[in-house]
Amino acid sequence: MDDLTLVREHTIYACVMGSRAFGLATEASDTDRRGVFLAPTPLFWRFEKPPTHVEGPREEEFSWELERFCELALRANPNILECLHSPLVDLLTPAGEELLALRGAFLSRRAHTTFTRYARSQHGKLLADVRLHGGPRWKHAMHLLRLLLSCRDLLRTGRLTIDAGPYREELLAVRRGERSWARTEAWMARLTEESDAALAGSPLPEEPDRARVEDYLHRTRLASAR
């Protein structure tokens, strides 16, 4: 079975991500598709294992095998956690429904570390653009701000919300380059400070519920083997 067949025939959850899911789409926005496929269990009974991820078959489409997806979600990978919370679901099987029902099991205070680490990395790239080109890539600056907003609110409420609708106009103004870099960077710094302050009193648990996720993975693999 080739990789693209795994995506076409064994996807359990598929959604739209990017600006369309974040409430920040414009007429020029691409449609970024993400998915989770369940490789049939017998494929693991051979030397060559199924892929952990697959690109395609459509443009801007990327899928993870279920186990890899769960591993990354337990590590609080920002892109993976946000994928679980997309409001734009394209495909959902019973196994996918159970995966979405586990969204809370993946959330923990680890998100503070992973989100802010990713934000620092992206901020460093923006600073390099400012030094080399006199200004940042404004689209990337907008998405960094959106990520920081999501992180702060997750730590405050214990719920991950990726819709940036309440901040749409200000974020799109950043994307259009209508805000100075100094003002934009100050907003980033303020959001980082607010996330740090929210950590101590966050309703999130210290660690994700690994046992609950592992039970789901075990049952899903077992059902696939029959």
Task: Please outline what is shown here.
This protein is an alpha+beta fold and 226 residues long. The protein has helices spanning 3-10, 19-22, 66-74, 78-83, 94-101, 103-106, 110-133, 138-157, 168-175, 181-199, 210-225, and strands spanning 11-17, 32-37, 53-55, 61-65, 89-92.
* Rg on CA atoms, Å: 19 Å
The helix/strand order is HEHEEEHHEHHHHHHH
Give the DSSP E fraction (strand runs of 2 or more residues).
5-15%
Largest sheet: 5 strands, mixed
What's the total number of strands? Answer: 5
Estimated helix fraction: 55-70%
Global structural class: alpha+beta
State the helix count.
Answer: 11
Rounded to the nearest angstrom, the distance between the terminal CA atoms is 18 Å
CATH level 1 name of the largest domain: Alpha Beta
| CATH topology value of the largest domain | Beta Polymerase, domain 2
- Structural domains: how many: 2
The CATH architecture assignment of the largest domain turns out to be 2-Layer Sandwich
Shape: globular
Low-confidence stretches: none
Q: In order across it, which strands form the biggest sheet?
A: 3-4-2-1-5
Mean pLDDT, to the nearest integer, reads: 95
